[in-house]
Amino acid sequence: MRRAVVLLSGGLDSATAAALVKAEGYEVHALAVDYGQRHKAELDAARTVAAALQLASFRVVRVDLAALGGSALTADLPVPKDRADAEIGVGIPLTYVPARNTVLLGLGLAAADVLEAEAVVIGINALDCSGYPDCRPGFLEAMRRVAREGTRRGAEGLRIDVLAPLIEDSKADIVRRGIALGVPWGLTLSCYDPAEEAGRPTPCGRCDACLLRARGFAEAHEIDPTAPAVPTT
């Protein structure tokens, strides 16, 4: 059986990517990263999603990107909220964590070397993202070269591919694919600034991640079970 390491954050994209490669016949090993993010609830979401999808293993690796700061996700900076569609994706927002996907994919390649996996999978998508430079096709190609040149498997002529099966999908496309794959949406968390209510994380509904997710479900004509309740008058 082919083996893959999936970078699993517990959000919409990574959960769908994990389900997709499992459906393609890979033995899937999930890797979540505690990098000092303010929304650590995503690590619990990743664990529950991995269990629900019956993945082969689940690991959490810790690396302190908060020591560097420079992002609203790792430093004491306000998370941008209520941005209009025209603003999202223009420029690089404050929620960009410097070199995060480079670090995450590096850890994924290390895990692939240890597990003798043929692929590292990341759920990035270039269409409906927040303008992050490490969600683009050029970045993906660069990391594929790193996989070839900078790993034991690559040096021995054993391929490690870097797969981003959702990179050309819109959020609506991802929702549709996830539904077809049986992704447990109610267990996922995509929010950058969730609140705690009754011991459970509740999406803010206002950050870029929440807005992009809401738009995806709306355009797919589906209901998001994690969406914040609309107050009644």
Task: Characterise the protein shown here.
The protein is of the alpha/beta class and 233 residues long. It has one domain (3-219): 3-Layer(aba) Sandwich (Rossmann fold). It has seven helices and seven strands. The protein has helices spanning 12-23, 41-52, 100-115, 137-149, 152-155, 171-181, 208-219; strands at residues 3-7, 27-34, 57-62, 119-121, 161-163, 195-197, 200-202. It has a five-stranded parallel β-sheet with strand order 3-2-1-4-5, with helices on both faces. It has a two-stranded antiparallel ribbon with strand order 6-7. Helix 1 (12-23) packs across helix 6 (171-181). The relative contact order is 0.18.
Keywords:
single chain; 233 residues; alpha/beta; 34% helix
Characterize the biggest β-sheet. Answer: 5 strands, parallel
The CATH C-level name is: Alpha Beta
If you consult CATH, what is the topology?
Rossmann fold
Q: What value does the Rg take, in angstroms?
A: 17 Å
Low-confidence stretches: none
| Whole-number mean pLDDT | 93
Assign a percent range to the helix content.
Answer: 25-40%
Number of helices: 7
Distance, first to last CA: 55 Å
Order of helices and strands: EHEHEHEHHEHEEH
Q: Report the principal-axis shape.
A: globular
